[in-house]
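ok posting inputs for the aspartyl-adenosine-5'-monophosphate job
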Amino acid sequence: MRRTLTSALPHATPGEEVRLQGWVHRRRELAKVTFLVVRDRAGLAQVVLPAGTELPPEETPIEVVGTATANAQAPGGVEVTDATVTALGEAADTPAVELWRPTLETGLPTMLDHAATTWRHPVQRAKWEVAAASLRGFRETLDAQDFTEVHSPKLVEQATESGATVFEVDYFGRPAYLAQSPQFYKQVLVGIFERVYEVGPVFRAEPHDTVRHLAEYVSLDVELGFVRDHHEVMECLRDVVAGMVEGVRRYAGAAVERLGIDVPDVPEKIPTLHFRDALEIAGAPSDEPDLSPAHERALGEWAMAEHGSDFVFVEGYPTANRAFYSHPDPEDPRWSRSFDLIFRGIELVSGAQRMHRYDEYVRTLEQRGYPYAPYASYVEAFRRGIPPHGGFAIGLERWVGRLVEAPNIREVTLFPRDLHRLAP
Ligand code: AMO
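and the output
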């Protein structure tokens, strides 16, 4: 007999024999009957048993074979009666939190310490369903535009993002680093495929304990060749974010409903500010080198008030303050052809047009006082024909965190890594 998912039970013919598999979600012993709620990947189903039936404890994996029976009171209008319940594993220990309650009533540390079970809660699972649907939308959008998915090494010779700290590892007796981003590889891969994307982990030895930083996160990287300038890259990003929103709507409708998420509309043309104007709007001094989290919040409020938009682009950050591979503005090299996308008051994406000439790289490394040797294999690729190009990286957890309005990024990360946490 084939397995019936709980979502298919309402469509079973009354009287038909069915086989469910899942977990004991809840047992309820009443005077005349025992109710068993079974949870599987698709939802919940009710099984009715004689009073006094011995059942395995909550969270034990089980199989239920019984008769589909119409009952207007049961979820979906059909329950299982005359059932045999078989445990498919050891009797589970009592979970740290009661997963059958409608909301997870626990603090963040307990939730994270017991991630292997707390993620089973339907509300918690829904958050990752939103992440998975976003990834599907990301890939579908880029696949449709002829991008090639790539995977680059995570053990690397050199740091790519100068500002952030790296994890050093022992690589057969010599130092290596965990990749902070696929930056160098995605640029070099433009020379092979023209348009590439990568979904993968990146590592940042973040020394600060903040609600928006992880030591390991999922980076959605894109790089495209033969661009006119960074505006073409921003147009691509706009379409990618719209595709992610579409993915959430299409593939995570039930999760959206469960979480009561306000899914944003992505404007055809996202409001765009030059860095200098962004400082002014945020009330920052005009010589400020970067935007602080408070400035980003102010810009998010401005975008909503002035344009009804959850998104705002800031372009033209000071060259000296951006990653060395950013393309300076040819008109005024103090500013760069770089941008950030702010979503609901937080930086979600960084990107830029990149330099693509060998000489520019050599000069920039020199100006910044970086040694040539560790960058040699990257920089020398630019002598072999790399077209004008640019790209961006979206932080997956930042995206989902803002979408579901989680106060802390760890709430939407399956197994977060931070200053204090290396397990589970
Ligand atoms: P950047 O370092 O700005 O750019 O990172 C891009 C995006 O990744 C997310 N992010 C983080 N998320 C969680 N924890 C962190 N510690 C963390 N740090 C960054 C943010 C951020 O906007 N190579 C460039 C991208 C490019 O130019 O293509 C880069 O990595 O959402």
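notes: Residues 122-144 form the longest helix (23 residues). The radius of gyration is 26 Å.
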